[in-house]
Amino acid sequence: MTIRESDLPGVGKKFEIDLDDGEMIVVIHNTGKREVFRRDDPDADSARVFAFDDDLARTVGSIIEGAHFQPVEPDSTKTTLPGGILLEWYELPPGSPVVGETPTSAGIRTRTGFTVIAVQRDGTVIDGPDAETLREGDTVIGVGTRENCAAFEALLTG
After folding, report:
1. DSSP run (H or E) holding 7
2. pTM, 2 dp
3. Which end of the chain is more exposed for a tag (fewer CB within 10 A), N or C?
4. pLDDT > 70 fraction of the chain, expressed in percent and rounded
5. Mean pLDDT of 51-69
6. Where are the domains of the chain?
7. Do 115 and 144 contact (CB within 8 A), yes or no?
8. What value does the mean pLDDT of the chain take?
């Protein structure tokens, strides 16, 4: 990501940030006001997206930087338990080899080390699902190490 900084005499500073689909321009005024602009094309005019006063900009900035909340994993739902054990949710994709099997008959725990503790289906949670036949679209909830979870993910896709 390229960021260019320039002085705006009598105004403040300007930061130009290259994005995959255009450019973001942030102007920080000497008064503390912040303005954010977007430009889809280098030859296009910039359009103001929003403006903040100094206090609001600092509050929003601290939220964005993660001072109030740190996501665990952006692409999945994971919770780390003591000892590095993960609590993880997986939706069963179409054609998964475990669809039509029970967690026991699919050998999930013996093959991957991942322990299925519940299945969520149509808004209902089924706990202790060892004898429950898994269906496409079910959300399997379980625990394991990172390696166990990776092995289970590999099993889900065949």
Report:
1. strand 3-8
2. 0.51
3. N
4. 92
5. 83
6. 3-64, 78-157
7. yes
8. 87
